[in-house]
Amino acid sequence: MHVLAPDLPGHGARHAERFSLDGAVQTIVDAVRTAPPGPLYLAGDSLGGYTAQAAAAHLPADRLKGLVLGGSSHAFIGAPTIPYRARAWLFRVMFALGDERKMVARKIPAVLKEFGMNETDAAATLAAGVHMSAFPQAVNALCGVDFRTKLAAIAQPVLFINGDLDTNHIRGESAYTAAARDARIERFAGCEHGVSMRRSGDYARLVAQFVQQTGGGSSPAAH
């Protein structure tokens, strides 16, 4: 299995770029152009999962064989956006009053540890670039987008993976799976949002199983 994990705008090596959904979709399209010939899969968690849903229509339909979407079944239209908009506003205030780099250094190591990441992987993640400013940009990009409509246009099978403590995404799960043409669900017990980090081994196992079950091969991943 050949895996590509491109940095989306506002993330990693591209932290200086502003995140936009169009820019993220173009990132996936460009990554797929570099992939070896053969079946394609999109696998993403949270923002990566929404990006995968938006990108699917822009990929060769005869090569795209399926999507694996972690924490990507929340409605970003109307009242459900309010908590996200409020948190995004709080982030902007924090960045206006303080140094983002110091905030990352102070807060993110504990978050990564809480996610179950070992010290070596946490250090590599921080070195690659963690940028909290991408969060309000992502919220602005996702709010108002009807991802269920995008999902309804995807003919390929879709696997949703949610933690059973991820209330928002569990709540939206039935609407998303009803919109999809071919959807299946996996739940991680005792797990909150961020399944690919909190339960990385189990997440990878489900991706591999899904590829095998649907007869695929190579898998570009949107994160």
In short:
With 223 residues, this protein is of the alpha/beta class.
Question: Would you mind describing this structure in some detail?
Answer:
By secondary structure, the chain is of the alpha/beta class. It has a single domain (3-220), classed as Alpha/Beta hydrolase fold, catalytic domain (Rossmann fold), CATH 3.40.50. The protein is built from 10 helices and 6 strands; from the N terminus they run βαβαβαααααβαβααβ. The protein has helices at 21-33, 47-55, 82-97, 100-114, 119-128, 134-142, 147-152, 167-179, 195-198, 200-213, and strands at residues 3-4, 40-45, 64-70, 158-163, 183-188, 219-220. It has a 4-stranded parallel sheet with strand order 2-3-4-5, sandwiched between helices. α8 links the parallel β4 and β5. The two termini are 17 Å apart. Mean pLDDT is 91; it is low at 218-223.
What are its keywords?
single chain; 223 residues; alpha/beta; Rossmann fold; four-stranded parallel beta sheet; two-stranded parallel sheet; 10 helices; 49% helix; disordered C terminus
